[in-house]
Amino acid sequence: MVKELKLAIVDVETTGASVTGDRVIEIGVKRIEQGRVVQTFESLVDPEQRIPPFIEQLTGIRNADLEGAPPFGAIRPELEAILSGCVFVAHNVRFDYGLIRNEFARLGHAFSAPCLCSVRLSRRLYPRYRHHGLSELIERFHLSCPQRHRALGDVEAVWAFLQVAYQDQGAERFEAAVKTLLRTPTLPPQLPAEALQQLSDGPGVYIFYDNTGQPLYVGKSRSIRSRVLSHFSGDYYSGRTMRLCQQATRIESHPTFGELGALLLESHLIKTLAPLYNQPARAHRELVIARRLRTWPYEGPVMLEEANGDRSEGHVFVVDSWRLIQSFQYDEAGTRPFLPAQTGFDHDAYKILVAHLLRHPRAVKPWRADRPMPDADTASQQRPISVC
User: Fold this and answer.
1) CATH number of 7-184
2) Does the domain formed by 194-273 have CATH 3.40.1440.10?
3) Tens digit of pLDDT for each residue in 55-68?
4) How confident is the model at residue 41 (pLDDT cuts 50, 70, 90)?
């Protein structure tokens, strides 16, 4: 065991699967110091709502059993003490940690701790196995679990797994895996750690996909990597975020050279892909009352550019009457199309362009008509376009 770490192995039974809407009905904790159990805590908890029949059947905890049980506020001081200074360990830690954080938050208290997921630890130590659920680990390693789907029973099983894995893998490999996971953001178990390696620290757009290849969510940020990691941070837990993270199996990123490119690309992809977790994009508006629009302040098309530091590569956007009529990317290989031209009025693009032009009026340059958009088939053969 990692001797210098204090561990709190935690399991909660709940009224359902929503991190924000459901409540804890039972909690079990074992505090581990120097590789030994030094404290055990177990309690039923009054959720202040009815338990669904499915949960009664799964856990064996009935509504009648919770009559007279303490509410979470009553056990908070003792629970906070046993968790203090520990790494929070759980099987699928995002769920248990999210529930506990939200229970604390309802009482006006903040709770935070480093997290270790025993699912991810099992995947790292035993990559030859496909499934790493607690039931599979119990069967695979013949772990003791006197009461499955009861809080302390599941804690006992996780503790037994840690001990078996430590003996089986050896101290050096086990401790290295734990320390690596503690340095790694707490990703959902189905997302490999390599998913983060290809993410840019610069601006752009990212897409979450499920295991069928369906797009779940399109987002944009000035730092793709930081924004993606924020989805997996305990500080951002919500029921919607939890569902998104549970379904995401692949992340795709599209770096841009600035915020304008990221905003326009995000808007285009939301309309094109219709991801499940994005709010429905505003429909294209072909007819808009004139008094609601700003007058186009230029005599003709203008050019906006976003580029890297030495301007060896970048994006160019050609805008006329609040419509994106051309856009392309240029680099040492030549030029190629970026976003499709807008054939009609797009209210979302209009808002993006208005905001950008108001913030960066000096970035606007007249567009020369002798700079046509290159065809996609010949783009890679053309010389870099001059944007000076």
Assistant:
1) 3.30.420.10
2) yes
3) 999 999 999 999 99
4) very high
